[in-house]
Amino acid sequence: QVQLVESGGGLVQPGGSLRLSCAASGIIFRLNAMAWYRQAPGKERELVAVVASGGSTNYADSVKGRFTISRDNAKNTVYLQMNRLKPDDTGVYYCHNWGSDYWGQGTQVTVSS
What we know:
Number of strands: 10
Radius of gyration: 13 Å
Number of helices: 0
Helix content: under 10%
Shape: globular
Distance between the termini: 40 Å
Structural class: mainly beta
Strand content: over 45%
C-alpha cells in the first residue's frame, strides 16, 4: 500500500519561508522521481517542482530561484524549501510519485499579511 504523507504547511507572511516534507512508503523510493504540485482556489493543479531518482531537478518558472526541491533516500522523504513566499504561492500543496496515480492528501500553504 503506497502512502505519501505531507507536512509543514501553514500561514506565513509575504517574504517568509516554509519547508514542506513528504514521507513515502510502499514504493522503492530511491528509484522513483517525486514531485510537488499545488492548487490555488479556483485554479487547476500545477506542477511546482520535480526531482528525479538521480537528483536532477526542474521547476516551474514562477518558483525558480525561490523554491528548492530535494530528497533524502535514507528517510524516504522529499522536501520543498520555499523562500521569499508571495501571496500567489497560496494553495494546497500535494506530493506526487511521478508517473503513477499516487498522491498525498495535501497540505495548505497560506501567504498573507
